[in-house]
User: Fold these one by one.
Assistant:
Number 1:
Amino acid sequence: MKATCVLLLSFSLSFVANAQQYGFNITDTTDEIGIASDTLEAAVRKRGYVSGVKGGSLLDKKTGFRDRGHGLDIVDWIMEPGSDEAYRDKLPSDLAYYFGNLYHGQRPKRSIEGPQICTKARELQPRVVEGRDFVAIEMKWNYTLAAPGRNTGSEWRQWLVFPRGKRYFISSDRITSRNDSPAMFLRIDMPGHIKHKRGDTFSEIYLSYRGHISNSEFFLDFPPDAKFNYRRDRDGVPQRFIRAYRARDPQTGKGGPWLAGMTLNPSDPSEAWCHQRGYVCMIHEFGERPIKAGESFSAAFIVGWFDSIEEMHAVYDRFKGHSDLEVAANGWRLIPSKP
């Protein structure tokens, strides 16, 4: 036992030393993994509210601003269009989907598998991969609930890659399905919701498919399909798919950088909400295409801090056309979207 403890301690010290050598400081506790570089800090939860980057932890060291939401690239259910009303009384409570209300709008949708990962998975086992100029974290989970006639066990896998010297991270979410569906999609938060009191934490929102929106539009609650809603089947595919908010110091009113979430293949999103429900809700759904059991679908993102819209566009255009991410110790690469 003593030899095993010494070996584990030696490995841990070696890992930290290597990370520091390459410009990162990594901390690993029972509840979360912390990542710090010269440009940003972030935390990834192992327990509690899991998936993505922990809310309030993405620090832009250039400006001192942090994200103002519940987390970034946070993951929910596997879903499809259509109502569950005919069998809702047979569903576990976390799968029932109520529409025709202020929270979900009018469009019928239903959950295929759950529960909601962020609130109900409870505990994940992140795997850290350290490269010469990046640190990456992989998370996986298999869904444990399913609608009647559907299988459980579809796999969600997420990569978060933090490149050295950047104020953003690259991520991907991938579902390997155990079910057939004519239009399966995954629901996530992208970049993430915005906590605020009458717009005190942000001055405006930028949607590449809509333009600039003043914070005053979010003083009162409204449903997701009332305004600022995007649907691929109705609106077409934009040149870029970027959703961002300009941070604002709630104490001084001082303006800060933009926090953006970019979907690198603009045809991957099927619907995106930007509405007010006590906070600005930035639900993002991708996929909604036919799939067979055993097949996969995914999307890739860049999430982080930018000084201007022009800077966002330049980064987006550099990485555009990718829908997944692969990582190994010798490097990471974005995977091109399928035609």
Number 2:
Amino acid sequence: MKKFAVIGSPISHSLSPSIHGLFGKLCGIELSYEAIEVDRSSFTEKVMELFKDGYDGINVTLPLKNLAYEVSDLPSNASVKSTSANVIWRQEGKIHSDNTDGEGLVSDLEEKELFIENKKLLMIGAGGSAISILPSLIDRKPKEIKIINRTYSRAIELVEKFKREDVKLSAGNLLDPLSFKAEAIINTTSAGLLKEEISLPAGTFANQDWTYDLSYSNSETLFSSLARRHGIKKTHDGFGMLMQQAALSFEIWTGNKPDIKMATKLLTPNS
């Protein structure tokens, strides 16, 4: 039996055990998958303990993704670009890492026919989730990505970190009115998920084609609800991204590509 786990804090809400358990059944692979509470102070010790105990792979969620990158001996290009990792495994005594968040998001966008090439995107938030997905978004060659954040200096840091000649990056804060007319909005903050008030600049919503909230919920997320109240008709949450990035992790570990559409249907029978 193969052994896997997801670690983070908090972690009790994670759907990863259900998702990977279903992937195993669909692919005919016997496995166990646990959700384990781990904080930053005990991260390295716990990872080494899990690998010593025979775990074949570990998913890593907030706030540990940068530590997962730092502990790895052989990070993937995606991990290096984002300086973070959400999947690690040990092979021949070396810890490997990868970041499937960005490709998971882009795969879900493409599945929903939400293409970003040559588009103007607004990204809300400049934390760990934004860092995880930015390289993959930039690789799809949008016309511009404007990053707005409560702490303006943090948005500037991301612009400097990921700047390229072929894609314009710019920064703003959440206090000044927004004149940037984006064609789509991606929310990377967890404010709505944490039931905090979502405070956005005047002019944020301006007839965008679609919005995407990296958070997900059994009901409509607060950000999606806010977008709808401002007239945005196509609003999406991060459940599709969750499924896509999980499938990429599963394929890395097992060499098997699960049927995402079938898994999604089984997990959300009323969808």
Number 3:
Amino acid sequence: MPVILQGALPAAQSGNPRLPGTMPCGPNDWLRVDDAYRAQMAYRTQLLADRRDAVLRENKTVGQELLAETLKLLPDKGFKVAKDSVTCPDGRRVVLDWNAPLYTLGHVVQEDICLLEKRGDAHVLTGAVLCFPANWRLAEKMNQPLIGIHAPVPEYTENIARRVQRLFDGVKVGRPLWRFNKLGYGDADLHQPYKKTDTDKMPFVRSERQCILRLPRTDAVVFTIHTFVVRDRPQLLNVL
């Protein structure tokens, strides 16, 4: 297990998060590249090769739209986009596979990606690339509504569930939202589908920057997770 750490948390993630606690996000700011990009992407590539069934569930229709939208943003993030490939900031060339769009995105961006579509009154998880889960398994959450996805979280009450569903219903195209969480961890491993042994020592802080955006054509909602892991009491970056 590689120990992959960012140098610091963004200053905007230094406080104490609350559920749902969302804020407006710039239309292109749901996608970020940070100082751990090279190391995180090497780990993602390894997981997609060795544990593809555990970390990937394709949704071709929605995934293709998200891939197309993402390609528009990449040149401003340090990527070079060609007709059939992307050259990443770490020098890797990723071939665009439109038949496996989430697999492709999993090799390009640091964010984990969950796709949710409206089924009746609820948004349901219909596809994902989830290399860095925090105590949950993708196979157990597929085709589950939001409250089912968050079932193990004690703070995720029915009241919170209704508020989160309203957020997913109300998010507008081109006007994404973001929030964050922050917890102490005893292990720095980014891939933690199962909760590891409790320990009194929590030398690491894990914080997820979570963004919610709507796709214009399919009307699906995209939930992205950019994971930071730092040593406890980190120096904070003065950035948003």
